[in-house]
Amino acid sequence: MTGRVVLITGGNRGIGLATAQRFAAAGYRVAVTARSGSAEDADGILVVKCDVTDTDSVNAAVDEVEEKLGNVEILVSNAGITKDGLTLKMSDESFESVIDANLTGGFRVARRVVKSMMRGRWGRMVFVSSVAGIGGNPGQANYSASKAGLIGLSRSLAKEFASRNITCNVVAPGPIETDMLMELTDDQRSAMLSVVPLNRLGHADEIAAAIEFLASESAGYITGTVLPVDGGLSMG
Q1: 223 in helix, strand or coil?
Q2: 236 found inside a domain
Q3: Alpha-helical regions (H) of the chain
Q4: Is 50 helix (H, G, I), strand (E, B) or coil?
Q5: Kind and range of the H or E element at 226?
Q6: Best CA proximity match to 225, nearest among 235, 236, 211, 204
Q7: Which residues lie below 8 Å from residue 53, measured CB to CB, with a gap of 6+?
Q8: Within a domain: residue 205?
Q9: Which of 28-32, 36-40, 149-153 comes out lowest in average pLDDT?
Q10: What is the pLDDT of residue 164?
């Protein structure tokens, strides 16, 4: 395999795994991180154990990827958690842990992999945000703040590293048919669908297709952008 090296955080299921499978099918050398160190349906994909809330764990995971596949040229920052709750009842821990995993975790991984991208004068970073990061969501102050923060992070990195031919962009999924969404009640999903113009849930592979494009040579003149993949939800 001679394709570029791709690292996808949180790639053991859902959008992350669909993205990994898509890149692998296209001939890229693909690694995914998982807190457990394992992933199902990951044939041909390197799975490394990593906790993005721990700098030493991030550095060790990237070291392993570099040793086994080569320097990371494409980063898909996808790892994230939710701890939903109304603001008046949300604890400091619930707020801070989501920010740490979703936003600071993305920063930790980007900081580690960008060094080799700079040396190679080529790189792609794609951060997986959410429509909640664009328009907010009741009961998700922590999650929405973390996903909004990824937009600012990505655009700052886009400006810092543009001279080294490194692009940084954001994909903002709407409601996607994943395990996380399936944990909602039928009434919650129905309410969500009622405001999606296309009137259906998205599929993980539709997000993966957008990510693959932003990581491609064809997207070399796109940086600092936010691409909603949400069935029209973010139109308002």
Answers
A1: coil
A2: no
A3: 14-25, 55-68, 92-99, 105-120, 132-135, 141-161, 179-182, 186-193, 204-214
A4: coil
A5: strand 226-229
A6: 211
A7: 97, 100, 101, 104, 105
A8: yes
A9: 36-40
A10: 98
- Longest pairwise C-alpha distance within the chain: 52
Q: Is residue 235 part of a domain?
A: no
Kindly indicate the confidence band of residue 40, based on its pLDDT and cuts at 50, 70 and 90.
confident
Residue 70 to residue 140: CA distance in whole angstroms: 38
Strand order in the sheet with 74-77: 46-49, 29-34, 5-8, 74-77, 123-128, 166-173, 226-229
CA distance 227 to 225: 6
Q: Is the pTM of this model over 0.85?
A: yes
The total of structural domains in the chain comes to 1
Residue tagged 């952008």 (tokens): 225
| List 28, 107, 143, 161, catalytic entry | 143
Euclidean distance between CA atoms 66 and 170, whole angstroms: 24
CA atoms within 13 A on the CB side of 133: 26
Q: DSSP of 186-197, one letter per residue? A: HHHHHHHHTT-T
Respond yes or no: is residue 221 known to be catalytic. no
Q: Which domain holds residue 74?
A: 5-229
Residue 14: give its domain's CATH number: 3.40.50.720
Residues 201 and 132: their CA atoms lie apart, in Å, by 15
